[in-house]
Write a structure and sequence with these properties.
- By secondary structure, the protein is an alpha/beta fold.
- It has one domain.
- Helices cover 50% and strands 6% of the residues.
- It has ten helices and four strands.
- A four-stranded mixed sheet has the order 1-2-3-4, covered by helices on one side.
- α1 packs parallel to α5 and α4 crosses α10.
- The chain is globular and about 55 Å long.
- The relative contact order is 0.13.
Length: 286
C-alpha cells in the first residue's frame, strides 16, 4: 500500500478484520503525511472491493476482458520468457524486495523522493482531531486485537523536508495528538539509523522514505521485544503523554548536533525546496 492516507488505512484494516476472523495482532506504521487533509485517496482505492470475500464483478470484467489487461498479459509473458525474474513476490517476513537498486543512482533517488514529498505535502493541514486513528484503536479493542503502533524511521532528510515546508511544529503537534490516543514507538528523529550519510552503498535506505529489510527487522525486534541487544539504544522510543515533551526536546537537540555536522545534507534539502518554489512561482506567472 503506497502513499495511502489514514482513512484508506482504516478501511483496509476493516477489510482485514472482515476476512480474517482469527486476526489477533496488528502492527501499524504511521507517517505524518497520512494525516494531511489535502492527501486524497489513491486512484486504485475502491470502497466496492472492501469487506468482501470475493472479487467484485466490475473488477473481474476489467481484469479479464479489458484490452489493456490482455496487452499487459501478453507483454508480461513475452518478457518473462526473455528474462525470468528471480524474485517478484513478497519475502517470508512480508517485505517487498527493492530489487537491485543501482548504487550509482542513490543520490538521484534521494533527490527525487524529497521532490515527491514537496509535490504532495508542501501544502499541509493536519486532519485534527485524529478521528480515523481513534477509530482504528476502537476497532482493535472491539475485536480484541492487540495493536502496536510505530512512527516510521524515514531518513533525516525527510525530517529536514518537513522543516523546510514550515511544518515542524505541526509534526510535533501530530505526535502529541497520537500519544493521547495510543502509545507509539517513535523511530523518527535524528538517531543512529536515520542519520546514515547519503552515499552509494547505503545499509539502511534505498531513498529518503524507504528503508531496507535490515531496518525493518530492527523495528520488529524493538516492538516485539526480540533480540533487543541488536537494536541501537536510540532507535525506537516508546512515547506516551508522560514523556512526549522530553522526547520532542531530545529530538530538537539531536537535530542541532546533526545539522552542525552535516551541512551538505541540510543544504541539499533546502536547495531542492528552493527549486520547487521557483517552479511554483513560474507556473503562477503563466
Amino acid at each position: 500500500m503506497n502513499g495511502l492516507n489514514i482513512y484508506e488505512l482504516r478501511r483496509y484494516i476493516e477489510h482485514a478484520i472482515a476476512n480474517q476472523e482469527e486476526l489477533d495482532l496488528i502492527i501499524l506504521g504511521l507517517d505524518f503525511f497520512m494525516f494531511n487533509t489535502f492527501l486524497e485517496n489513491q486512484p486504485s482505492f475502491s470502497e466496492n472491493r472492501l469487506e468482501k470475500r470475493h472479487i467484485s464483478l466490475a473488477d473481474f470484467v476489467n481484469i479479464t476482458f479489458s484490452s489493456d489487461a490482455l496487452i499487459a498479459s501478453k507483454e508480461t509473458i513475452v518478457e518473462s520468457k526473455k528474462n525470468p525474474p528471480d524474485n517478484i513476490g513478497y519475502g517470508e517476513n512480508g517485505f517487498m524486495p527493492y530489487r537491485n537498486p543501482d548504487p550509482e543512482k542513490t543520490q538521484w533517488r534521494f533527490k527525487n523522493s524529497i521532490n515527491v514529498y514537496y509535490n504532495f505535502n508542501a501544502k499541509y493541514q493536519l486532519s485534527t482531531p485524529l478521528d480515523e486513528l481513534k477509530k482504528i484503536v476502537d476497532l482493535c479493542q472491539q475485536h480484541k486485537i492487540k495493536l502496536i503502533s510505530f512512527i516510521s524511521p524515514s531518513h533525516v532528510t525527510q525530517w529536514e523536508a518537513i522543516r523546510a515546508t514550515g511544518e515542524w511544529s505541526t509534526f510535533e503537534d501530530w505526535k502529541r495528538e497520537v500519544v493521547e490516543i495510543t502509545p507509539v514507538f517513535d523511530f523518527s528523529g535524528y538517531n543512529s539509523i536515520t542519520s546514515e550519510p547519503i552515499y552509494n552503498e547505503m545499509e539502511n535506505y534505498t531513498d529518503n522514505s524507504h528503508y531496507t529489510p535490515k531496518v525493518g527487522n530492527l523495528i520488529l525486534n524493538r516492538i516485539l521485544d526480540y533480540e533487543q541487544e541488536e537494536v541501537p539504544e536510540d532507535f525506537g522510543i516508546l512515547i506516551n503523554p508522560g514523556n512526549i515533551e522530553s522526547h520532542l526536546t531530545k529530538i530538537r537537540q539531536d537535530r542541532e548536533v546533526w545539522a552542525k555536522n552535516n551541512p551538505d545534507e541540510v543544504k541539499l534539502v533546502k536547495e531542492i525546496k528552493d527549486k520547487y518554489d521557483e517552479k511554483l512561482a513560474e507556473k503562477a506567472d503563466k
